[in-house]
Design brief:
This protein is of the alpha+beta class. It has 9 helices and 12 strands. This is YbjN domain-containing protein.
Length: 360
């Protein structure tokens, strides 16, 4: 079978490939879950409570540019929201005229219009109108600020005295106190610690999916109950600037660790050949193109399951995604899961369509 034919087989589902699920549908569902969680949280907050939502600059590569939205509950059931304006952003990361227009179309007032908004875009809504407000906030973070997935957001919920408030997770967004957490073996680099943290994971009496969730929760420094599992049964985890999914298959018992390396790419013979060459050089796993997405996949055997094997697979996948997305994007175009093309565009000198508007 040629490389092109193999790619077509994957696209047609002939090999029952578990990682060819519609990526757009998975991401869309994750945003819906985030919006629903935010809508459920807002009505429960007392006056003076705050929610701070930020696109993690470490993961997004925006450095000192912090795209954020803050919400504050006012008396009489009013919620005030503020979104970062260009005055608080470095020149190269400022939003262009189209982005500003999108914010206004969503219902935001330009900086200075809403009393007390200062250099931020402002919005006020009734607390019992939480669903609509959550939709506006979600679309702002996703469509204007360029967050590719809720897992790239960090948040903090606190009261009027800035004391943290215990709240249900906002989908796959990360609670800010755990922002320094990472998928790493550093804290589990000796057999004793590994055994203590993952006791019972190797027990074949425990179902494979439960063992896998225990491993992922341990690496993410969270609890099994707080893991986000989508409609396909995949665990979605953010690792650095990569998005990694973990799926458990029953027959045969297998754990697949996979990541979208490149999306919206045009399949070609040259692409299939390149992916074949790269796969041949990988000690484990493979790269392939399904529909318009290049995927990386590393399988972990479910029989005689070893937690350390899954942890290593996640670490390898993270490094692989970071290394290959730029290389393949430069050669074949397309769109990285989070790359320069996904960030708000930088104004171009001499281009009226990107010239700063009156509120920038």
């Amino acid at each position: 079978m040629t490389a092109e034919a193999a790619g077509e087989a994957y696209e047609g589902g002939l090999l029952d490939e578990p990682t060819t699920a519609d990526l757009r549908a998975k991401v869309t569902q994750a945003w819906r879950e985030f919006a629903a969680a935010l809508a459920g949280l807002l009505p429960t907050l007392q006056p003076g409570s705050h929610i701070d939502l930020t696109l993690d600059p470490t993961a997004s590569g925006t450095g000192t540019a912090v795209y954020s939205v803050s919400l504050r509950v006012l008396p009489e059931g009013v919620v005030e929201a503020l979104a970062v304006g260009n005055a608080a952003l470095p020149q190269e990361f400022r939003m262009d005229r189209a982005a500003v227009a999108d914010l206004v179309a969503l219902g935001w007032s330009p900086p200075g219009v809403l009393a007390g908004s200062g250099d931020s875009f402002g919005l006020r809504s009734a607390q019992d109108n939480a669903a609509q407000l959550a939709t506006i906030i979600t679309r702002t973070l996703r469509d204007v600020h360029g967050a590719p997935h809720p897992a790239f957001l960090v948040y903090l919920v606190h009261d009027e005295e800035d004391e943290p408030i215990e709240a249900s997770p906002l989908g796959t967004a990360r609670h800010e106190p755990s922002i320094e957490s990472s998928l790493s073996l550093d804290d589990l680099d000796d057999d004793e610690a590994l055994h203590a943290a993952l006791a019972g994971v190797a027990d074949d009496v425990v179902p494979l999916d439960e063992r896998v969730r225990t491993v992922v929760a341990t690496m993410s420094k969270t609890t099994v109950d707080q893991l986000q599992v989508d409609a396909d049964g995949d665990i979605g985890i953010r690792a650095g600037s990569a998005m990694v999914f973990v799926r458990v298959r029953d027959n045969p018992p297998l754990v697949d660790v996979f990541s979208p390396i490149l999306t919206e790419v045009e399949p070609s013979e040259q692409l299939y050949v390149k992916l074949s060459e790269l796969t041949n050089r990988m000690p484990i796993g493979r790269l392939y193109c399904a529909q318009d997405t290049v995927w990386a996949s590393i399988p972990v055997f479910g029989r005689n399951f070893q937690a350390i094997h899954l942890m290593l697979a996640v670490q390898v996948m993270t490094g692989l995604a970071d290394e290959l997305d730029d290389r393949l994007h430069g050669e074949f175009g397309g769109k990285r899961f989070f790359g320069e093309g996904d960030k708000p565009t930088t104004p171009k000198s001499g281009d009226d369509s990107h010239r700063p508007g009156m509120y920038l």
